[in-house]
Amino acid sequence: MGSIGAENRLDKIRLSSTQIEEQITDYSLSFPSTRRRDVEWGMKLPMFVPSFHKYVIGRGVIPRQNEFWELYLSDNESDSQIRRLSPEQREGLKARVYRAYPSLVRDIHFALLLRESGKFDEVVYNEDLDIIQGVDLIVVKNGDTFAVNLYTNTRRAHRGRSKKQFRHEELKEVKNIELPISFRGSKQCGAFFLYSSRELEKLEELIQDYTKHS
Asked: How large is the angle between the packed helices 17-24 and 87-117, nearest 10 degrees?
């Protein structure tokens, strides 16, 4: 269990950040252009993260984009919202899942990278943090706990982040850190843009700033 009481999925993931890079280097990415407002914002659909964790922990590999979509559908075939989707809405959901997939890969890779760095007392990565508190991961440094929010530095991602902030419970005794990734100059692995030492150093700087002013 993590220091904040959440089970740490990193304890069950049998992969290193380097192994993830080796796996995904030849994975292709596709982004259907379909965007439906009802599917994007108007429905309470099952979260994507549990299916992703289930695959990675159970199989010890990162799913390909289409494999993740098929698993998500299989995991949630009994969900009433999923069953009621029209063919057009289902295509909209598929496009949304496909767009979310790279960020799920990026987050798990970065969580492992942070843990492997040895620069933090603890790194906690758990889907309940995302679903309940809207937090991507937790890091503990010198006894202080930080909620780290990961997203791409784009207008759409900032909009999604602002909506997410007001949909979840807030963690007490935790300092929030926003850590958007800019694709320009970021680490590229095949078709993926990843967090790397650049963002690790930025996170350390932000933590130092919090410490100085607390």
From this structure: 140
